[in-house]
Amino acid sequence: HRHLLGIEGLQPQEILGLLDRAEEAIEVSRQVEKKKAVLRGRTQINLFFEASTRTQSSFEIAGKRLGADVMNMSVSSSSVKKGETLIDTAATLNAMHPDILVVRHHAAGAVELLANKIDCSVINAGDGPHEHPTQALLDALTMRRHKGKIARLVVAICGDILHSRVARSNIILLNALGARVKVIAPSTLLPAGIEKMGVEVHSSMKEGLRDADIVMMLRLQRERMAGSFVPSVREYFRYWGLDREKLSYAKPDALVMHPGPMNRGVEIDPEIADGPQSLIREQVEMGVAVRMAALEALAEHLPNK
Ligand code: CP
């Protein structure tokens, strides 16, 4: 593939190939000298129309570890503020001959639209509620390293499924690799027709967490909620926030994940976020490795290679 726009459309063997490649990238990142020359002479631009801590910084570090020249475009001080459109902004950057453009945008489909208009490789770093493919890959890598495989794992994804590109990409990937996916949320935070994605749907944490090997908590995305949030944040934590009691409904060796950023005390108790079953910091390390793997895979399809 010339672009990485989503998990949808990737074959299981391609997903596993990226995870294997990421295992090698973990070794590179743990060395004192963390450099490979795969992208030497190549230019990577990170174009983020939405806020990011993990994704943007890990794409920058990943590109640099592979030898690319990486430029972070600051959208907040760009001519987007003067009314320049997404396509014009991308076409302007494209005229500077980048090889890879990493894009995050608040609209679903915006990254694919852009990929069709310009001639460099494009990676989706999150498009509205649609997909966040490298997040699902880093989550799968983290799970596989702890549980040995993805097939037949029971993964409970809990919380704001409605607004979550992380949930969508994870559901597609986990189904492709043969996991059993359960989603748990109040009805106001479930997209219509979610069952058609091949998941079991629960509203109670007690039922939903039964048999879970992995408990993946999602951030309550209040910035995407137009009106007031139902239930209230206090009720939400009481019924759907992961605390010690609710975690006890899952398997005794269940592991806890969260893509970040976390709302401590809203969807997760700090005691659990920082506790012995949490993989949240490790997910961040895997994020760099997976982004190195994705960049390396695209490098094989760049012209003159
Ligand atoms: N998980 C994730 O995408 O985090 P950022 O929004 O900080 O990039």
TrEMBL record:
InterPro entries: Asp/Orn_carbamoyltranf_P-bd (IPR006132), Asp/Orn_carbamoylTrfase (IPR006130), Asp/Orn_carbamoylTrfase_sf (IPR036901), Asp_carbamoyltransf (IPR002082), Asp_carbamoyltransf_Asp/Orn-bd (IPR006131). Keywords: Pyrimidine biosynthesis, Transferase. L-aspartate binds at residues 82, 165, 219. GO terms for cellular component: cytosol. PROSITE patterns: CARBAMOYLTRANSFERASE. Signal peptide: none annotated. Residues 2-144 form the Aspartate/ornithine carbamoyltransferase carbamoyl-P binding domain. It holds the Pfam family OTCace. GO terms for biological process: 'de novo' pyrimidine nucleobase biosynthetic process; 'de novo' UMP biosynthetic process; amino acid metabolic process. It is an enzyme of class 2 (transferase). It catalyses: carbamoyl phosphate + L-aspartate = N-carbamoyl-L-aspartate + phosphate + H(+). Carbamoyl phosphate binds at residues 54-55, 104, 132, 135, 260-261. GO terms for molecular function: amino acid binding; aspartate carbamoyltransferase activity. NCBIfam families: asp_carb_tr, PRK00856.1. HAMAP family: Asp_carb_tr. Reversibly catalyzes the transfer of the carbamoyl group from carbamoyl phosphate (CP) to the N(epsilon) atom of ornithine (ORN) to produce L-citrulline. Catalyzes the condensation of carbamoyl phosphate and aspartate to form carbamoyl aspartate and inorganic phosphate, the committed step in the de novo pyrimidine nucleotide biosynthesis pathway. Heterododecamer (2C3:3R2) of six catalytic PyrB chains organized as two trimers (C3), and six regulatory PyrI chains organized as three dimers (R2). This is Aspartate carbamoyltransferase. The gene is pyrB.
